[in-house]
Every structure is written in C-alpha cells, then in structure tokens.
Write a structure and sequence with these properties.
Shape: flat
Number of strands: 0
Order of helices and strands: HHH
Largest sheet: none
C-alpha cells in the first residue's frame, strides 16, 4: 500500500465515522436562543451611558454603520470638485 493510498484510506475512514456520528448529533434537542445580559454602567458614568434594551444597541450600531457608509461615499461626492484640478496634481506629482 502506497503512502497516497494510506492517506485516502484514512480520509475514507474519517468520513465514514463522521457519517455515522451525524445522525446521533442531529437527534439532540435544540436549545432556545437567549439574548445576552445588558451591560451595566461603570461607576461615575452618566445616566444615559447604559443602553436600556437590545433594540437600542441595534439602533446605535445601525446609526454608526450609516455614518461609515456616508464616509465611504465621500470620494464619490468629491469627484466633481477634484476633477478640474486632477491634471495639475498629476503634473505636480510627476515632477518629483
């Protein structure tokens, strides 16, 4: 038996073992999804520093993502302003 055949046999054996173990694992009951506990404010933090619900945390994350998206669109919004001076900037960069 060559080394390649031994490796293939090992993979086949591992696959067969996984196939036999899969039905037993899928028979396990599904545990319900639980939400994490809300964080508590550290001493000395302002009153509004602690979120009151998971939805509030989601809203804050969504707001931050919207700001990031606006920042990603900034080059597209500045293109009309940069386009007229682009040839001059290219020439200045080529002189170095």
């Amino acid at each position: 038996m060559t080394k390649t055949q031994r490796i293939l046999a090992a993979f086949a054996l591992a696959g067969a073992a996984a196939g036999l173990a899969a039905p037993a694992a899928s028979a396990a009951p599904i545990s319900p999804l639980t939400l994490p506990d809300l964080p508590s404010a550290a001493p000395g933090m302002p009153q509004g520093a602690t979120p009151s619900s998971v939805q509030e945390i989601g809203g804050q994350v969504s707001g931050g993502l919207n700001q990031l998206n606006q920042l990603m669109e900034l080059p597209n919004q500045l293109a009309p302003v940069i386009a007229p001076v682009q040839p001059i900037a290219d020439l200045a960069g080529g002189l170095e």
